Amino acid sequence: MIAALVMGSYVLAVLMAAVAFFGFFLSTVKGAASSREADLSEGIDADSKTLLVPIKRLTEELNNVVGLADRSSATQLVGNESIDAAKSIQSQVVHALRLRTELRKTVRGKSLANAEIVKLEEGIAEATTDAEREALQLALKARQQELKQYDIVTEKIAQIDQSVRHAEAALLELKATLLSNRVKSVVEGRETEDIRETVSRVKAVSSSFDEVTEMLDGSA
Question: Tens digits of per-residue pLDDT, 142-152?
Answer without folding.
Answer: 999 999 989 98
